[in-house]
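thread: overnight batch results

M.L. [08:02]
morning all. the overnight job finished for the chain we discussed friday. pasting input first so we're all looking at the same thing
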Amino acid sequence: MNPPPRVPPLNAGEPTSAPRPRTRRKGAFAVLAVVLFLFAPFVSAATRPKAEQDKIDFLIQEIRSSPGVFVRNGQEYDGKKAAAHVKGKLFIAGRRVQTAEDFIRGVASRSEESGKPYTLRSPGEPEVPLGGWLSRRLVAYERAHAGTKP
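M.L. [08:03]
and the structure it wrote out:
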């Protein structure tokens, strides 16, 4: 059996209608400008005092590195997934969260969907509300950094 004959493309030998590289760059720049314009309010909304951001980053790292199981709406998650979840909520909260206490109360304590509190089940310990656990971590952080300037 012979393979079917090769059919040349319809525009063989004709100039292509593909845009020149310069036009592509202009299009890519326009898309980038639109994306930056749309996301600029979210990026600027997430600015908060550095000392408070450092505390929030510490708390997120504590969640991420915890050996416990985080419970959200009846589902269990490891520390990495729980940290990613509260980090996403923090991004959405933006300017409404200015302090570590705001973060604990408004982002990392309960489900917006169900209103149920997040909990943490550490090995060999009873299940505790995540908000209380984070508050204790925050107090320890502030004691350890009491003499340092932000």
